[in-house]
Amino acid sequence: MESSASLELAKHALLMFGIILAVGTFSGLIARLARVPDVVVFLLIGMLIGPGMLGMVDIKADSTVNQLIMIFGSSYILFDGGASIKLKVLKEVWITLVAIATIGMLITAAITGVAAWYFLGLAPIVALLLGATLASTDPATLVPVFKQVHIKERVAQTVMSESAFNDAMGAILTFTVLGVAMGAGEFSAGDALIDLLKQSLLGIVIGGVLGYLAAFFISHEKFNFLAEFAPVVTLMAVIAAYMGADGMHASGFMAVFVFGIMIGNQESLGFKLTEKEGGELEDYVMTTAFIMRMFIFILLGTQVDFALMNQYLLGGVAVVVVFMLVARPVTVFLCALPDRRAKWSFRELLFMCWTRETGVIPGALAGMLVGMKAPGAQIIASVTFIAILMTILIQATTTKWLAKKLGLLVE
What we know:
- The protein has 411 residues and is an all-alpha fold.
- The protein has a single domain (71-405), classed as Na+/H+ antiporter like fold.
- 77% of the residues lie in helices and 0% in strands.
- It starts with a helix and ends in a 6-residue tail after the last helix.
């Protein structure tokens, strides 16, 4: 009896998942022994087993399976990051967060766009589109790094929070510039700001409401009838927060991040899990987040297009160097230094200049531009791959070393 096409596809997907789990577990062990963030090893292993080299795993970037893993995986990792944020820290640094996630995005996109215009000879609007695509930091990369490298609390939480807050602005800015590039509209800073506020505030409200309800039914003294199902509740609520926000044209990532903050600050809300239940939930979240970043970064590595990267390698590397060493420092110092409430030290600012890895979110935006046949989409995708590789392989691996040199490492 012949197998149906759907059954064969299911078997193929199951085989791919098995390979990823096997090599991912081995990669996690290597990362621990080498004392580097595991996302770095996952990315390298993904490149090795992808179609460009060994050909063991080949899941297309535009496939339903890949999109499902990227969306849910990023959401769960961001929830995990939110759960580690302390509200008292956010109260101290909120001015810096808002400035970097709004004005800072524009500064980064503009400087990177100028570099793309100069080194790659792109039309100004296409160069700006490239800058906008790269401008947002990536929570799926940053959260795992700061989970493994223990940095001074307010610095780590500021960088993680920024990665959640600026994804909405990155998407808004990218598609606003795309509209201009394709002759469908004109850039309006006012409209972009209103759209950003709408997406962010709705995401905050949705995540806050779902987070409070989850905490209530998990940890309330009388109504905690879902306490023993807390891990399942977190899975369900992460999906509900993302889909609910997305359905209302709000930031899904913002919603899951705020949901995580609510769960992680249950005591501030007047709720408290028992020590046993709290430990079980923490272990579950940690394991699930590990599996999610394993899948995300191994898949991201398998999808690196070496041929496309080579076409614009020298110019692309030059653009990314400006992006890392000029655009980010200018953004941090212009947006954070004036924040007298936070009173950032020079060493803290230097560290934030170096920690802005590029990953899933810019990669997804670049993929969408290619699918839409946007002007310069192939060049943008090429430079985005270069940025992902350079920032993760260079910045993520040196995070702990730099923190130690600057006296920000917490043992």
